[in-house]
Amino acid sequence: MKALLLVDLQNGFCPGGNLPVAEGDQVIPVANRLMRDGGYDLILASQDWHPANHGSFASQHPHARPFEMGTLSGKPQMLWPDHCVRGTEDADFHPQLEKSRIHFVQKKGQDIGVDSYSAFRDNDRSALTGLADEIRRRGVTALDIGGLATDYCVKFSVLDALELLPGVRVRFVSDLSRGISPEGVEAAVSQMRAAGVPVVTSADILAEASR
């Protein structure tokens, strides 16, 4: 059972969104091609789904500015612009994403007191989203992951998948992903490789599927 996890392919993280990742929209055609022709049995997606008063937003901290370090529930927290507020256009999947091909959507970041980069659990590592249970329930044996942004939500999703899904082959799809900064992407890819995660491209996957 081969699955693809698309991490946060939302308007908010694409150009024109409230927290845009440079070239974030360029991964959408890659995602669509992989969903169509990548040989996957299951397509999963995560979706940032914040309440309007989420504690990771700089607007919720007096005198704070976006991209400053602050605290949330007593722990260090990067403070972000308001983004992906549930029910808003910013939180919607990118309009060109072929959403009808997605079998299961995992919403995350709904607790105002903790951020949730990973599709699998909150940043304090105490609360699981339920995605790992869904993947186990469906009998997945191989999981490819990509999306936005490489150095945050994708990296943490990959590393959590590796830990929470023993026995499942986990791979990072590089051209299905874009990051906040080149330095952050380089560090994230190095960290994933060091954990034993293979780095593949969509071309690799499409070649596999055609064999």
TrEMBL record:
Which SUPFAM superfamilies does this chain map to? Isochorismatase-like hydrolases
EC number assigned by the record: 3.5.1.19
Please give the Gene Ontology molecular function terms for this protein.
metal ion binding; nicotinamidase activity
Annotated metabolic or biological route of this protein: Cofactor biosynthesis; nicotinate biosynthesis; nicotinate from nicotinamide: step 1/1
Keyword Metal-binding listed? The answer is yes
Per the UniProt record, which residue ranges are transmembrane? none
The UniProt entry, under CDD domains, shows: nicotinamidase
Query: Where does this protein have coiled-coil stretches?
Result: none
BP terms from Gene Ontology: pyridine nucleotide biosynthetic process
- Keywords linked to the UniProt accession: Hydrolase, Metal-binding, Pyridine nucleotide biosynthesis
Domain Isochorismatase-like, residue spans: 3-204
What protein family does this chain belong to?
Answer: Belongs to the isochorismatase family.
- Name of the protein in question: Nicotinamidase
Source organism of the structure: Gellertiella hungarica
